[in-house]
Amino acid sequence: MNLSVDFAGIQMKNPVTTASGTFGSGAEYSEFVDLGALGAVTTKGVASVPWPGNKTPRICETYGGMLNAIGLQNPGIDLFAERDIPFLRKYDTRIIVNVCGRTLEEYVEVVKRLASEDVDLLEINISCPNVEAGGLAFGQDPKMVENITRRIKDVAKQPVIMKLSPNVTDIALMAKAAEAGGADAVSLINTLTGMKIDIYRRTFALANKTGGMSGPAVKPVAVRMVYQTAQAVKIPVLGMGGICTAEDALEFIMAGASMVAVGTANFHNPTATVDIIKGIEDFMRNNKVEDIQELIGCVK
Amino acid sequence: MSDKKKSIAEVISQKMVSEGIYSMWLSFPKEQDMAAIAVPGQFISLYCQDGSRLLPRPISICEIDREMGRLRIVYRVAGKGTEEFSRLAVGDTVAVVGPLGNGFQKKDGKSILIGGGIGIPPMLELAKSLEGEVSVVLGYRDGNLFLKEEFEPYAAVYVSTEDGSAGTKGNVIDAIQNEGLSADQIYACGPLPMLRGVKDYAAKNGISAQISMEEKMACGVGACLACVCQSKETDTHSNVNNKRVCKDGPVFDAQEIEL
Question: Mind telling me the catalytic residues of A?
Fold first, then answer.
């Protein structure tokens, strides 16, 4: 039985990674799961300098999901490179580094800095709804998506995954723009912009007023967008959005995702990643699937 | 692998100790015995059965029974999740991750333990485990003095109530001053205004104070950066002036934190 996939030229032992921002750089969850069992670890977004993030409360629960507005708090690329990359390298897993920035120059600076680092892929976050400048602003205009992708590809030494926002009218258009800019892959969905009101305090549940919605409640939207994207582009798709079980992951795979990421589910179950990998194996065994390739995009 | 465990706990007892406040003893299987390693001031994450509520509920540990492998939590029903826990009956099970956070650092000498409202429960195990002279000051809204008598075997207990129906009328600092209490260190858990008062009082009197913080959490293990508080100095992990309540805390030296 073969679970390994080639994703943008990088061999992964299985198609399961973590969704950026939900798993830190793996250290905290390494107390619950063997990181070496994962196809890859996708790290929390890192910028050129440390970011303090938003005010609290930064999260709230919603029905079947949650909102977050962390605001991309991160320790900056220097400490990340010195501490987090060597930590992850101890494990037999691929490293996908998520990159964020306020301006195009900031993204380019981080990508350049990572060129000499021992990491496998870059995921460029052009879709965070929780920071004022940068983030989402780059991800909602196809021309911008194409331009930023091209600029990043010019300096990147690793394959580049562009992380797309679901907060657009036509996701396929954004995916095509990333492909036209030279992206090696796309990942989606980032969170859906949402809001919750605390009716007893008569105020917003989040200090940032709005936040990114994630969790099982968003899954049907995510599966639809992954399907539309996979139909529209030739580059591989990393699918995510509410995956909690192996069955959820298989929906994304059949819709056309070559890899899947587990995010919010880690909060509900710290061993969600490895449980999902085992569940995919069980499904393949029970359904006599020899190679995961048979399932990727099998629903047209 | 560290000491943190993911476990299915069994409910040993459950009772209401005050309006909307419940006490529950949980028993853990031998392989994932959290009681053996838990310390006062740590918390556990409880998970709801109902999948529509996916985030763990962090609840502080009230008592630790190492011999029997049991933990006690005393919690307020604050929403649908804690309401679900309050309906658990003896023999029911609940998913738990823990023990989480750092816990109080026990010091020698004269101590004042301060608990306010639902910040009272974590002080009980601390009161039981501290050596030396221990005073406990408990702040309540009214004369409904839940857990008070349970502290009495271990410490001199003083009370403040907002409505003046028992003990000193006012807050916990009023009670400390009213009773003329003094100490080498303070341990405190309670609402933010109370912690601010404790911090000020400790600073003015040159006493060290450990305070247990609360913030909305998602992962509970230090990964998601939801539950940060502001630190005076740049934190070595975050590289900014933020500390994680769930991982670096919940207990902090009061003077290291901006409240």
Answer: 128
Q: Cis omega (within 30 of 0) on the bond before B250? A: yes
Pick from B46, B47, B239, B245 the residue to mutate for testing the A interface (most A CBs within 10 Å).
Answer: B239
Under an 8 A CB cutoff, do A75 and B237 touch? Answer: yes
First-to-last C-alpha distance (Å) of chain B: 34
* Residue range A81-128, pLDDT digits in tens: 999 999 999 999 999 999 999 889 999 999 999 999 999 999 999 986
- Give the ipTM of the model, two decimals please: 0.94
CB pairs under 8 A between A and B: 111
pLDDT digits (tens, 9 = 90+) for B41-100: 999 999 999 889 999 999 999 999 999 999 999 999 999 999 999 999 999 999 999 999
Whether residue B51 and residue A64 make contact (CB cut-off 8 A), yes or no, is yes
Q: What is the mean pLDDT of chain A?
A: 96
CA-CA distance, B130 to B155, in Å (whole number)? 10
**Cα separation values, A200 from A189, A203, B58, Å:** 32, 8, 21
Cα(B190)–Cα(B181) distance, integer angstroms = 19
Residue B135 corresponds to which tokens in the numbers above?
A: 């005073």
pTM: 0.95
Cβ neighbours of residue B253 under 8 Å, at least 6 residues apart?
B208, B209, B210
Contact A75 B54 (CB under 8 A): no
Express each pLDDT in A38-93 by its tens digit.
999 999 999 999 999 999 999 999 999 999 999 999 999 999 999 999 999 999 99
Find, in chain A, the residue whose alpha carbon is nearest to that of B245.
Answer: A56
Considering only the beta carbons, identify the residue of A58, A75, A267 that sits closest to B54.
Answer: A267
